[in-house]
């Protein structure tokens, strides 16, 4: 039979906690007619300087570029983003935050802050800080090891 010590696994707790955070945020956002994917688009744009190529945005969101196109079409119609040609490469499309996104972004951030408060309600400020530091260390460790070249086996 399949056995694994799930409850002792850091990966298990990270994954189910991330999933619970996403579900809670999606629930908060849906009350305002906003989807989690729309939040992700504006979130990555806000995080990375308010413009990204469509390919980079799809990679960050872990979705296929064709899936992203429909989402961006709707967001462009809503006036939340604009798309234009990438300087020097007309095949690439650059996605930018539009001024009309500011109001919806404030709604998104308020929802995110409510979820963050719920998620950390039973933690002390020191525990929250320690948790952030530990998660950052795990992230750095895993991303650093992913970037190292694989040694050739002889």
Task: Tell me about this structure.
This protein has 154 residues and is mainly alpha-helical. It has a domain at 20-120: Winged helix-like DNA-binding domain superfamily/Winged helix DNA-binding domain (Arc Repressor Mutant, subunit A), CATH 1.10.10.10. The protein is 62% helix and 12% strand. The chain has helices at residues 10-30, 36-47, 54-61, 65-77, 101-119, 125-147; strands at residues 51-53, 81-86, 89-97. A 3-stranded antiparallel beta sheet has the order 1-3-2. A hairpin with a 2-residue loop joins strand 2 (81-86) and strand 3. Helix 3 (54-61) crosses helix 4 (65-77). The protein is globular, with a radius of gyration of 19 Å. The two termini are 36 Å apart.
Name the beta content range.
Answer: 5-15%
User: What's the total helix number?
Assistant: 6
**Mean model confidence by pLDDT:** 93
Report the CATH C-level class of one domain.
Mainly Alpha
Output the helix-strand order: HHEHHEEHH
State the shape: globular
**Rg over C-alpha atoms, rounded to the nearest angstrom:** 19 Å
- Percentage of helical residues? 55-70%
Distance between the termini: 36 Å
Q: Which residues sit in consecutive blocks of at least 5 with pLDDT less than 50?
A: none
Largest sheet: 3 strands, antiparallel
The tally of beta strands, per DSSP, is 3
Q: What is the spatial order of strands in the main beta sheet?
A: 1-3-2
Which architecture of one domain does the CATH hierarchy give at level 2? Orthogonal Bundle
CATH topology of one domain: Arc Repressor Mutant, subunit A
Please identify the oligomeric state.
Answer: single chain
What is the structural class?
mainly alpha
CATH homologous superfamily designation of one domain: Winged helix-like DNA-binding domain superfamily/Winged helix DNA-binding domain
